[in-house]
């Protein structure tokens, strides 16, 4: 699966590519309260698996 995001060409974008990082807006900044809801049964997951979502 690939996720695409159009970004401006600047130092922050280049650093994100170099360091294999991704940036997300905070959920409280979204205009739809259901945009950032993550329904994952955490009790059934290991700590390693949970960290993949963070």
Helix and strand layout, with pairings?
Layout (H helix, E strand, L loop, with lengths): L10 H8 L28 H7 L1
Would you mind describing this structure in some detail?
Helix content is 28%, strand content 0%. With 54 residues, the protein is mostly helical. It has one domain. The radius of gyration is 15 Å and the shape is extended. The two termini are 18 Å apart. The model has no long low-confidence stretch (mean pLDDT 78).
Q: How many whole angstroms does the radius of gyration measure? A: 15 Å
Shape: extended
How many separate helices?
2
Overall mean pLDDT score?
78
Which sheet architecture does the biggest sheet show? none
Compressed to H and E, one letter per element, the order equals HH
Keywords:
54 residues, mainly alpha, single chain, extended
Please outline what is shown here.
The chain has helices spanning 11-18, 47-53. By secondary structure, it is an all-alpha fold.
């Amino acid at each position: 699966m690939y996720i695409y995001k159009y970004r401006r060409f600047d130092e922050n974008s280049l650093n994100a590519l170099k360091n294999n990082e991704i940036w997300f807006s905070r959920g409280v900044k979204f205009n739809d309260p259901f945009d950032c809801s993550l329904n994952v049964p955490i009790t059934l997951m290991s700590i390693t698996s949970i960290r993949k979502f963070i």
